[in-house]
Write the structure tokens for this entry.
Amino acid sequence: YLREKNYINTVKQNILLQADTIKTFLKINNNQFNLLPLQKLTKTNPGLFINIQKTNQIFPTRFILDNNILVYETTFHNYHIIIWKNLTELKQIKQSYIKSAFIISVVSLIIVLLVSFLLSKWLLKPINEILDFLNQYKLGKNTYLVNHYKWSDIWILIDKINNFIKKLNQAYLNQKQFMQDISHEIKTPLM
């Protein structure tokens, strides 16, 4: 919005400068309109249109903005001066900004999603390894433990799981030994 306002103010200043040039020319040349170099004025300001007509009416000096056309009109020494500029390029500039903002937003969103995905995979790697280990674990068959990640805050959980597995394996071995001892005692009683 501010850029649009600044652009319109710049165009207004340019139009006022041209109007002052026309007024100065009319003063110097005793109101001889036919000597006014309109082509030179419009050539130095592309997109600026000038219309000067002899009149007996007095028109108010004003700017009018209507349908992307900025119009300046005034009366000077019996001349009705109208200067206007089509502001469709402003609309193109706005569309360009909107398009750029959209593209930047989409690219930013893609980058954020990609970084989030990679970060979540990296952060969840130890948990996924724990789950894989627990899914493959068989009592009495596996003696290996879960890998430690010193860089991870999850190492406390890994340590607890490893201690639990050691106790579970020891309990299994104790139970197995107990069963062997009982079976031996049943075959050969002590008495």
